[in-house]
Amino acid sequence: MMNFICVIPAREGSTRFPGKLIEDLWGEPVVFHVICSCAKSYAQKVFLATDSEKIKEKIESSILRSKKLSQYQKNKISIRIVKERSIKTGTDRVAHLIRILEEEGEKVPEIVVNVQGDEPLISPEIINKVAKALADDTQASISTYGFLSKDLHEFRNPNRVKIVVSQNGDAIYFSRSPIPYGAKNFIIHTGIYAFRKDKLLKFSSLPQSKNEALEKLEQLRAIDNGMKIKVLVGKKKLFPVDTEKDLKFLRNLKKFKR
Q: 258: Cβ–Cβ under 8 A, 6 or more apart, which residues?
């Protein structure tokens, strides 16, 4: 069995939609659905790394009363307050927690899976497959997931990041622009990254790259510094909560499914 942990960075003050992670979705906070999927995956431990006591208290309450998780799965979960002025991105928060855990004497496995807290449709299967993709490719520093789409609204939406992938399954470029030109099936990126621990710590210490600053996409820092990103491409569509409109869509989607 693979040996990995999941870390969910959870910042309260989102620029586009502050407090979105604890907004109600299907009777629970948005980020709680992500925590459940992580806890049901093969991850040995699941950490919620947050800057907010409010998020911590809200999620502790949800875990306590939840009937969706077994006691074993609940025991996997740890909520940690991770604050530091130097933290500018979710990945920075994940890396900072890893440093704290190692200072405390915890043995952190080689693979650390960063799952964004605004991806409520993420599944345990996707988490496991992304971790396995990194474990299987010893040359890769990072692995991630993207799904195939033909939806032109998604293609043109700058909040839906597109990936250009090589024939070997490695990321060539990520963009908010509709790329590649002429594609009939394009790949929409999602909020999950599996890192090799040493590459995660190296990544967080690197300065922002030019392409990262232009696109406002931190994964381009990895590509600009020669890190190989393996892309698992699937059919399962994920839908993050970037805006209040997204949250409303997901609430209606659940009702439609019923």
A: none
DSSP structural state of residue 19: T
Cα distance between residue 258 and residue 252, in whole Å: 10
Instruction: Check whether the bond before 180 is cis (ω within 30° of 0).
Output: yes
For 37-49, what is each residue's pLDDT tens digit?
Answer: 999 999 999 999 9
Q: Please state, in angstroms and rounded to a whole number, the distance separating the CA atoms of residues 86 and 71.
A: 36
Task: Specify the residue for token string 């995956």.
Answer: 41
Neighbouring CB atoms inside 10 A of 186's CB total 22
CA angle 225, 172, 155 (to 5 degrees): 125
- CA angle in degrees (0–180, nearest 5) for 89-31-58: 105
- Return d(Cα 191, Cα 246) in angstroms, integer: 15
pTM to 2 decimals? 0.95
Checking DSSP bridges between strand 186-196 and strand 28-29, what pairing results, if any?
unpaired
**Token pair in block for residue 89:** 């991105």
Q: Which of 111, 192, 115 is nearest to 146 (CA)?
A: 192
What radius of gyration, in Å, describes the C-alpha atoms of the chain?
17
Structure tokens at 119: 């991806």
Residue that has been written with the tokens 């190296």 in this structure: 202
